Amino acid sequence: MNQLKQIHAYTFRNGIDHTKQLIVSLLQIPNIPYARKLFDFIPKPTVFLYNKLIQAYASYGPHHQCFHLYTQMCFQGCSLNEHSFTFLFSACASLSSHQQGQMLHTHFIKSGFGCDIFALTSLVDMYAKLGLLALARIQFDEMIKKDVPTWNSMIAGYARCGELEGALELFRSMPARNVTSWTAMISGYAQNGQYGNALSMFLMMEEETEIRPNEVTLASVLPACANLGALEVGERIESYARENRYIKNMYVSNALLEMYARCGRIDKAWGVFEEIGGRKNLCSWNSMIMGLAVHGRGSEAIELFYKMLREGVVPDNVTFVGVLLACTHGGMVEEGQHFFESMERDFSIAPKLEHYGCMVDMLGRAGELREAHDLILGMPMKPDSVVWGTLLGACSFHGHVELAEKAAEALFELEPWNPGNYVILSNIYATAGQWDGVARLRKLMKGGRITKAAGYSFIEEGGYIHKFIVEDKSHSRSDEIYALLDEISAKMKLHGNVNDSDSEIISACLME
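The structure assignment produced for this chain is given below.
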């Protein structure tokens, strides 16, 4: 940078015009403000320099500067070329400006660049990122020639809007795919809560192609591993990340940290947290606090929160969800109330629905059911099914029929289709010996044709996730599975009961 300033001073003193080269060099650093000052001294900049500056603002911001330059170009009579539109479409997507995008599209067509594949791909990408999938699809279908980035833009647009069937249909139709194509599908599934599909897509990518995952792929699939408890796959991904030096990427490190925390490997999560070191961001702190909190290490979570404050990191609403969960699982009601009250008072963070949910859970576990109910009634927003369901669960644990009925009444209105609420209230009635209540609920369920869906479980084996329900025989090796379970059951019966040697018996059966 100092060398460039010296060159600028030298050329200025000696009347040599190297402004164009200086601007290009400054934008490569990038030092956009300095480049803009030099640019503004040029009476009539070329389209090349306009494009360079627009590209820089489109990449680094502020994005609205792209349109100031666009207006200046039009005012000065500097004709835009296809590259100008490519960068402007990108900036428009970042600004989420529908009106500006459509105006640019009109100008683009009038300028006669409708055959440039790069500009057209940028146009498809803009409409897709703006959520205007119908317009994006029209442009996509009208393109005579499409390259892989064109397909990727459309697939990512569908995935971003939750239209995963459309994304998959396009993905399967692609003549060729790259790592971005696979990552778009994996990310789309993960972001829409279809973690099993995200993981399956990642495993398919590994097995069926020679395409190697990049850091974005890893950061996209690790949350799926976290939500599925796919620890073996997660550990394999960590090894791959370390081999390819992707572990230095903050998104990968944070996703790995969360994966270990969610899978119960707090020791490994802590190891990743410490390895991040001085690069820790708020996401790193939040994941570690949350991991400690949900695994019963509330005191450590609170201690880490205070350490975070001492290091000058400002908490957000996610941080306080972790802190309140730590108090909930640790039975620290007074501390939890203190943190809840401090959110707005000390940090100007208005409690959200999830914070009230944590407080209801905390009070409910402590048997303070009346206080939990009063808190729900005093909430500044309408309580959702999670909040009422938390109270109903607490009433079930403590056998409080009156408040259980109030919670259930709210739940029947919010989610009449959910059989779980009827079953929990029915069990509360049965425990209290109120059989007329049980009969009334059964009649309600039959009248509303509400049936309880079969519960299912996941198990990870050999890097694959298997889903099963009670007495499930859909697995290709179900005969072997049941034979082994029968053998385990028989050996346990020989010992008369379940005792400390059970794990040894099961291990012996598996070894055989």
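Interim note for the steering committee: The first strand starts at residue 456 and ends at 461. Strands lie at 456-461, 464-469.
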